[in-house]
Amino acid sequence: MLGPFAAAAHAATTQAVVSLTFDDGDEDQYTNAFPVLQQHGLHGTFYIITGFVGDNSGNMTLSQLHSLYNAGNEIGGHTVLHPDLAEVSASEATREICDGRSTLLKWGFPVTDFAYPYADINSTLTGIAQHCGFNSARGLGQLETPYGCQKCAPAESIPSATPYDLNAPGAVTDQWTLSDLESVVTQAESSGGWVPITFHNICNNDCDPYSVSPSLFSSFIQWLSTQPVSVKTVRQVVGGSVHPAVSAPQVSPAASGANGVVNPSLETVSQYASRVPYCWTHISTGTNTTSFTETSKAHTGSVAETMTVSSYSSGQARLITTQDLGQCAPAAVSGNHYSASAWYHGTVPTQFAFWYRDTIGGWHYWTASPHFPASSGWTRATWTTPAAPTGATALSFGLQISAVGTLTLDDYSLVGSGISPASPAASLTSPSHGGTLYLIVGIVAVVFLAIVIFWLLRVRARRRRPMPSGPPRGSARPSPSSASAYQPVPPPPATGYWAPQSPPLPPPRPYGPPPHRPTADPGAGYPPPSRPPANTRGAPSPPVSGPPWSPYPPDRQSRPYPPDRQDRRDRRWTDESD
Ligand SMILES: [Zn+2]
After folding, report:
1. Cis preceding-peptide flag for 504 (omega within 30 of 0)
2. Separation between Cα atoms, residue 263 and residue 265, nearest integer Å
3. Ligand 1 center to residue 82 CA distance, Å?
4. Which of the listed residues 404, 422, 440 is the one where a domain comes to its end?
5. pLDDT for the residue numbered 274
6. Residue 493 placed within a domain
7. How far is the centre of ligand 1, averaged over its atoms, from the C-alpha of 298 (Å)?
8. Among 376, 397, 422, where does a domain finish?
9. Core-most of 189, 191, 492, 563, by most CB within 10 Å?
């Protein structure tokens, strides 16, 4: 691992350390980067999205992960489904971080290090990463590169002063040249310290804005192996023991006869996705031109959604429930049947499409209903599913169309059969701790509640993200305490996070246009192009104490939105034969 000058280098405390990190588990990392690392006797850290492993959509298989690990590489955590964790509830973020880690442990990887999707970090998330048993969690964009953060430090310290907010240069993009890559190493050679370099795709033909070609990667690794630096995995730098798996609060199925859909009448708009109903997803796959609009001509309430397909060659336009780990997706029981219904009117036939979540959190296409005819007036589509597949833990569904025309939707429902009433509180159990855990949780819960109350009073005023405000969705609605009703989930105590979890979070109260992230982030919405790029923080925050929040790298604002989230989903939507 050491270059020819290593013997002459200064003591280990001053010699620069480089980590080669690879995000998202893209298969081309295995095919194009892994052999180069092996050739030079180097090892990297691969941050894996567990719900995407082996999904036949350009991600590594479990067997490939084992090959990487057995060759000396580190397998790190990168959530189950790669959401922007700052945009989900603390319970959902805990599921994403803890469950991803638990799955990697179950697969046999002694996982100790984490990377935040989109490098979006706040104090709640750093606490959750620690709570879930990780020893470090990596950000991006806080160290100097030729493309950003040019007044930032050249290297992270060893040990890091902020192990759950590890400093790293912005992710490598297709703009980077060999000399750019070399520069982040040579600047650390001058300063000492640690530089974790982050790659995404290693591919030809510029397959992704966050990619480098195999030849450039190979040239860089060849050069790196001649340098007086130590190349280590993140775990080799951070150290620490492998902690046991930590259970996250799971969401119980709705009581028998109850509608499991969150925001079923589409009245609440997403805080983060402009004009998308909370817990719903607009999707169009294939080749067509589709738009989604809010209409005040609702079946009930103030709003409904209209899908308009203006040109069509293939695919579907859909409004479906968000596929997540429980904040939105109704929990389900395998073997049970589900009765779906929705009110619609439109110019073309429509049908329900269904997906299910498996036991590790991955989502798969399941089935579709027969078609319902076009209707000029509000009509109710109802359909009862077959028995939910073995291993299904949740469902996602919605109506779709596949022709030029319009479809207006409102008032969805999903009711299961044969499910016993949900327990009043989500379980928080750990087989490895047993009864002691309940005692600890009880004590911690009391302390935590006290801290939460104290914290809420203190922190509201200086919360980084503004509180949602403005009128509720739909102009005709009264405005019942819309802004004040939304309770942001407070960050955990600084030392250890063990949030007693309540049942599924109630949907936030209606609020108006999505709030924007403050300053230096001209377009805070989702989706692209207004969303901040993945390799930056979501927003600069006012300095508190310790190191200042790094400047927003200006170059990133003009970069295309990293396609990992959108592209992965698009690939999955189109791959319905699986
Ligand atoms: Zn990622």
Report:
1. no
2. 6
3. 6
4. 422
5. 85
6. no
7. 38
8. 422
9. 492
Helix or strand run (H / E) with residue 77: strand 74-77
How far is the C-alpha of 276 from the C-alpha of 409, rounded, in Å? 13
User: What is the distance in A from the centroid of ligand 1 to the CA of 118?
Assistant: 6
- pTM (two decimals): 0.75
442 alpha carbon – ligand 1 mean position (Å): 35
- Residue 259, in any domain of the structure: no
Domain for residue 270, yes or no?
A: no
532 alpha carbon – ligand 1 mean position (Å)? 14
Q: What are the 10-residue block averages of pLDDT along the chain, 578 residues in total?
A: 41 78 98 98 98 96 98 98 97 98 98 97 97 97 91 94 96 97 96 96 95 98 97 98 97 93 96 93 96 96 97 97 98 96 98 98 97 98 97 98 98 82 36 43 51 49 34 33 33 34 36 28 26 30 29 28 34 39
Ligand 1 centre to CA of 551 (Å) is: 21
Residues with CB under 5 A from ligand 1 (ion): 23-24, 117
- Residue 456's CB is within 10 A of a number of other CB atoms, namely 14
H helices of 9-122, where? 27-28, 34-39, 62-70, 90-94, 100-106
d(CA 338, CA 369): 12
**Is 107 a domain residue?**
yes
Q: What is the pLDDT of residue 433?
A: 42
Residues 45 and 165 in one domain: yes
In this structure, the strands spanning 304-312 and 351-357 are unpaired
Q: What is the CATH number of the domain that holds 161?
A: 3.20.20.370
Domain that holds residue 292: 280-422
78 CA distance to ligand 1 middle (Å): 7
> From ligand 1's centre to the CA of 146, what distance in Å?
22
Residue 119, Cβ density class (10 Å: 0-12 exposed, 13-18 middle, ≥19 buried): buried
Q: What's the 267 CA to ligand 1 centre distance in angstroms?
A: 31
Q: Are residues 287 and 175 in the same domain?
A: no
